[in-house]
Amino acid sequence: MLLSIIVMMLFLLFDFNSDVSHAGGVKAQVNTTKETVIQAPFIPSEDGVYESMVWSRSGFNVQPKPDYFVKSGNDIFIHTHSGRTVMNWGNHESVKYRWYENIDDQGWHEIKNDSEDLSINVDKNMPDHERLYQASVTYDSKYTYYSKIANVHIKHDDVKATELKIKAANKYLYSLGDIKAFARSTNISATINPENSTSKVLWTLGKFAGKKTVPVYENNLAMINSKGLLTAKDNVQGTVRVTGYIINDDGTILSDSVDIEIGRAVEDKAGVLGKAQTFEFKADNLKLDNNNEIETKWLFKKSGSDKAIELSGNKDNPFALTIKPLTAENNGDQYAFIMKKKNANGYIVVFQTRYATLKVNPPANRNVTMTTNIKNLNTNESAASVLNNITDGNELKFDFTVQNNGSVDIRNLQLITNFRSDAEITSIMVDDKEIDKSQFEKSKVGPNLQLAMYLGSMSAGSKQTVTVIVKETNLKPEETHVFSSELMGKYADTGEQFVNSDLPKLNLNYVSNRGQILSEVKAINFEPIFGDERNTFKNRTDDTNAPNFVVSIQDARSNKHQIKVSVKQLNKFTNENGDILDAHLAFFNPDPQMIPFGQEVVISQTKDGEELHSIQWDKGHGLKLHLGNSFAKPGKYQARLEWDFVDAA
Q1: Which of 173, 392, 455, 594 has the highest local Cβ count within 10 Å?
Q2: Same structural domain, 73 and 170
Q3: In terms of domains, do 375 and 344 share one?
Q4: Is 348 helix (H, G, I), strand (E, B) or coil?
Q5: Which pLDDT score is estimated for 266?
Q6: Residue 28: its pLDDT value, please?
Q7: Could you write out the DSSP letters of every residue in 86-146?
Q8: Which residue positions does the secretion signal occupy (predicted)?
Q9: pLDDT of the residue at 15
Q10: Can you say whether the dihedral through the CA atoms of 377, 379, 385, 386 is positive or negative?
Q11: Residue 486: its pLDDT value, please?
Q12: Which residues lie across from 400 on neighbouring strands?
C-alpha cells in the first residue's frame, strides 16, 4: 500500500509528458521477455476502497491514468496500488503482480514485472508510436483483480513546459517499522502544462537554489529517488521539503515545493507540572464518519507497569488524548493508539502504534530581559535611555542586549523597535556581525519607522547584542522622540508564545545645529590589491586625498575647548563571502603608526580656543592599509570605522 501511493505521485509526473500521433508499422524494442496472452485486455475490476486506514473492498485503488506522454529516451513510469480486505487475508498471504503490453496493436504480451509499478526505458532513437498497458494482482493464488488500461504516447520531438505543480499522495509518513496501515513512503506527482510537454522533472530535498541547485537525494529525515518516491528514514521526526523542478532546453526554470511531515504516529511528550498535555495520533486522511464498524482507543501503561488499560480519546477528537492536570506521578507514563474493525466475532485490532512516553517537568524559570545603550557617534555622548543634543545628520548607535535569564531555550525570537520615520538605518548587526536582509523587515507604522529583527534561537543563560546604526535626517528644532521596543518568541519546552513589552523606553531629544560641531565622514577606499602582494602598504584613492576632505567639519561651538578626534576600526576587513583580509590600518604623520584592531588612534587635536578644521591628507600622510603575510582571496573587503570627537570640557 505504501509503495503504491508513492508511485502514483510519480506517475502523474509522466502523465503530461508528450502528446504524440500514432505511427503505424512501428515495432518498438523493449528489453523484457514476452509471452503471448490471448485473453488480454481483461475487463477492469471494481476500484478497491481504502477508507479510515481500512480496506473495505479489494482491488486497485490507484489506477493507471488513461494517457501518458513520454519522450523517446525517457522512462515510461506507471504507478498503481492495490489492497485487500482484512476478511480475505489468507494464512500465508502472497501477492503476485503481472503486466501486459500491446505495442501499436501488434498483440498483447505479458512482460516480466512482478511489481505494482511499471518502469520501462524508451530508446532515444525510437520513432513516434503508441503502447497499451494493463496490470493484474493476485492474492493467495486465487483472488485476482485487473486494472484499467493505460495508453502511452511516445514522441521523438521535445515540447517545452510552461507550468509545474507537484502534490504528495501522503502528507504524513510513518518512520518506525512497517505497519500495513501506515505509509512509510509516498510518491510526489507532477502536473505539467502543456499536457503534452516532454520536459523531465528533477527532484531535490531541502532548499532550492535555482540553476545552482545540486540535487540532494538524502538527508537526515528521508530519501527521494529520481522518480519522486520519498521514503522516511527509521525512527525520525520532522518536516522535509521536497522540490520538483524543470530546466528547459532554453534555460528557463520551473519549480514547486511541498512539505511532508515525518514521525512515529504518536510522539513522546514533555509537559509541565500542573498543566495539560495532549497526545495526538497522526496519519493521513483520518475520518470516521460515524462508522460503527471502526473503533478507536488509547492504551495506557503506568510508569513501571506492563499492564495496558484502554482509554477513550477526547470527545471532540478521538485521535487525541489529553491528560490534565499533570502530576509528578504521571512522569514516565506511556500511551499508544489502537484502531479496531468489527467482524462477526466482535472487534479485531487492525493496528497499534508504539508506546510514547510522557515526561513531566517542573515549572520552568522564564525570564527574558533587555538593556539598552545609545551613543551619538558624532559627539561621543552616550546614555542608557535618554540622549540629548542630537542634531541633523548625527549617526546614532543603538545597542539592544537581550538576555535569556531563564532555564528554558527560546525559539523564533523577534525584537521589534521603532525610530523616526525620516531616520536612515545604515547597519544592523548581531554580536558584531552584519545580518542578512532576510533577517529583518522595515515598515512605516504611523509616524514611526518600525524595524522587526528575527534573532532565531537563544539557549538558556545566553545573550545577544543587537546593534543598529541610524542616521538622523530632516530634524525639527527642539524635537523629542520617545519609542518603545518589544520581544516575542516561543518557549522550546511547551511551544507557548510570549510577548515582553515591559522594556526600557528610549527618549531622544533633538536640538538645532547652533553651537555644535557638524561633521561628515567620507567612506575611505584603498588602491586595488593584486594576488601576489604581501607585506606592503596601499594608499587611499584620490577621492580622499587633498584637496578633498576625509572629514568635513563645521565648528559652531561658542566655547571652543580642546578637542581630540580619534578613529577606531570596529570589525575586520571581510568580503562578501565571509573571507577575512590579513590587513590592518596604519597612520602616517609622517612616520607610520600601526593601529591594532579595536584600538583608537588620535589623528587630530586642537588647543583651547582653537577651531577644529576639516581633516585632509596628501597621498603620503593619513590612513593607509598595511597587508600582512597571507595572500588575499578575490573580493571586495569592507570594515567599519568609529570616529570620536572628545571635548576636553
Answers
A1: 173
A2: yes
A3: no
A4: strand
A5: 93
A6: 33
A7: GGG--TT--EEEEEEEEETTS-EEEE---SSEEEEEPPTT--SEEEEEEEEEEETTTEEEE
A8: 1-23
A9: 30
A10: negative
A11: 92
A12: 372, 466
Same domain as 453, residue 342 = no
Q: Which residue has the cell 521603532?
A: 418
Domain-ending residue, one of 329, 361, 393: 361
State the chain's mean pLDDT as an integer.
84
The secondary element (H helix, E strand) that includes residue 9 is: helix 2-15
Statement to judge: residues 505 and 522 lie in one domain = no
DSSP β-bridge partners for residue 103: 131
CB atoms within 10 A of CB 178: 8
Is residue 514 packed enough to be buried (19+ CB in 10 Å), middle (13-18) or exposed (0-12)? exposed
CATH number at 379 reads 2.60.40.740
Which residue shows C-alpha cell 556581525? Answer: 433
Examine the domain organization and report whether 462 and 610 are in the same domain.
Answer: no
Note the Cα 97 to chain centre separation in Å.
Answer: 40
Q: Is residue 420 part of a domain?
A: yes
Q: How far is it, in rounded angstroms, from Cα 175 to Cα 169?
A: 16
Cβ distance 87 to 36 under 8 Å? no
Domain boundary among 510, 528, 546: 510
Task: Return the SS3 of 437.
Answer: helix
Q: Which three cell numbers stand for residue 380?
A: 561621543
The predicted-structure confidence for 296-320, as pLDDT tens digits, reads as follows 899 999 999 999 999 999 999 999 9
pLDDT tens by residue, 569-620: 888 999 988 899 999 899 999 888 988 888 889 999 998 888 888 999 999 9
Q: Is 253 within the bounds of a domain? A: no
Q: What is the pLDDT of residue 559?
A: 65
| Location of C-alpha cell 522564564 | 366
Enclosing domain of residue 185: 2-235
Same domain, 221 and 274: no
Whether residue 448 sits in one domain with residue 388: yes
The answer as to whether 545 is a domain residue is yes
Residue 260 in domain: no
Average pLDDT for residues 398-419, to the nearest whole number? 92
Total structural domains in the chain?
Answer: 4
Domain CATH code at residue 324: 2.60.40.10
Assigned C-alpha cell, 375: 551613543
183, 213: one domain: yes
Phi, psi (degrees; rounded to nearest 5) at 212: -80, 0
Determine contact, residues 498/489, Cβ cutoff 8 Å.
Answer: yes
Q: Quick check: 529 pLDDT over 60?
A: yes
